[in-house]
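Hi both,

Apologies for the delay on this - the queue was longer than expected. I finally got the nicotinamide-adenine-dinucleotide-bound model through. Below you'll find the protein sequence and the ligand SMILES exactly as submitted, and right after that the structure tokens for the full complex including the ligand.
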Amino acid sequence: MKMNRRDWFRWSGLAGLAVAANPLVRGLAGNQDAAGAAGQQPRRQRFNMSGFAAPPLEKVRVGIVGLGNRGPSHLDTLRHIEGVEFRALCDIEPDRAAAAKKLLEGTRHNPRLYSGSPDAWMKLCEQDDLDLVIVTTPYPLHATIAVYAMEQGKHVASEVPAAATLEECWKLVDTAERTRRHCMMLENYAFGPFQVLTLNMARQGVFGDIVCGECAYNTSKMSNNFSKTMYWNMWWLKLYGSKKGNIYPTHGLGGVSQIMNINRGDRFDYLVTMDSDDFMMGPTARELAAKDSFFAPFAGKSYRGNMSTTIIRTVKGRTITVQHDGTSPRGPHTIIHAITGTKALAQEFPLPGRISTSLDGWLPQDKYDALVKEFTPAITTRMGGLSQQVGTGHGGVDLLECWRLVDCLRHGLPLEQDVYDAAAWSSIVPLSEMSVMNRSNSIDVPDFTAGSWKKNGPNMDINLTRGGDTRILLG
Ligand SMILES: NC(=O)c1ccc[n+]([C@@H]2O[C@H](COP(=O)([O-])OP(=O)(O)OC[C@H]3O[C@@H](n4cnc5c(N)ncnc54)[C@H](O)[C@@H]3O)[C@@H](O)[C@H]2O)c1
């Protein structure tokens, strides 16, 4: 089904109504008015943020909003990076803000705390001596906070996904272009060793023409989602109970999109999404509600199905399959990253990573190791053992992404992912829902670059041709 921008907003508005039943995200529905009005106009790019570099920063003065699981994890990573100064911390829950500040006791950092009301983050964004706002709240709030932070002159690094609706994706793009502030989504898996290895191989022509990519974030979050304490206000369970489609698409999609030069040589054209039924969340909610009235509001909801599968077609005729299953009892955590080209195939998950360059099957270990040695880029080797020593999350990729973010800001370099990446990768959340609600018919993906994808140059300076000298502080 072909849709114009007005239709997108109409659809998104309908999707928004379902979401609006969730008290957590009710406030966001109001954002649709302004963006909806903008949606009537053909889009013109104000300023091309691809390749944008802001003036270098001697220090990177950081504020973090959202101090549940992810916020303190970023705090612990960033405190090991030269030039970072924590100046502000915010959480709606005062004890969480105080606990995060306690983690910095005895260090050079003395951040101001903001807390106690749902909009305390606005005051943080208004604080003068801040350069970068890191957004780690439940994701339906990410874009609202990011837009306000940019309006206040701050760069933004948002956790994934950066936006929950199409209007928010556009608002991120419009605001970044107008304010000329960075808006990077912290898609950490795109910095994974196998992802950047295959990116380097793709750039050197090892795969020939890239034909398709497959990716997934398939890992059971059932016990987390039904835990009373894991996530603030049961926000993930509320999302599963009010949304359809891929509600967490960016982890696999980031790495594949970099390899396919999405937004810089190619772009997403249209997609279809099909969800399986929910076989587990509804029955679990009913069982729990029978024993514990806390779960009564969660019984009888129409949960997102166990498995959501999206296929995106690009303008250059390639396909990307994106899966998300956060429900089925998968022992092995599965983050598929598979690239098929006319000359070679690479696939990670199930582990270990494998590469094939002929019909003879996967390369034997010695040949695989030789390719890894030849094509592992500097961005991986520079961090090497340091990430093990510092011991930060996701096998060291969190340190790598935060280090490179700070390094680029200190040197006044373009960031490795830009606002068009944030918008395009996040847009799969609302667009996949639109497809599911329309019997999996195809939905066009907007061109957030307004045509500049045809001439934008590559990002991900994986060989660290510039910068790269920011130190890691051990201890
Ligand atoms: N990239 C990754 O690998 C990764 C891993 C985990 C989580 N995430 C993302 O990080 C984000 C946070 O996830 P989490 O697991 O930390 O969730 P969480 O529920 O543990 O933490 C969210 C925090 O936000 C706070 N909060 C809620 N409303 C607020 C408001 N109005 N103002 C200020 N604070 C508010 C809550 O009190 C809570 O402390 C999510 O968007 C998630 O998708 C990414």
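Main takeaway for now: The pocket of nicotinamide-adenine-dinucleotide is lined by residues 65-71, 90-93, 96, 118, 121, 136-139, 141, 159-160, 186, 188, 231-232, 235, 394 (CB under 6 Å).

I'll put the files on the shared drive as well.

H.
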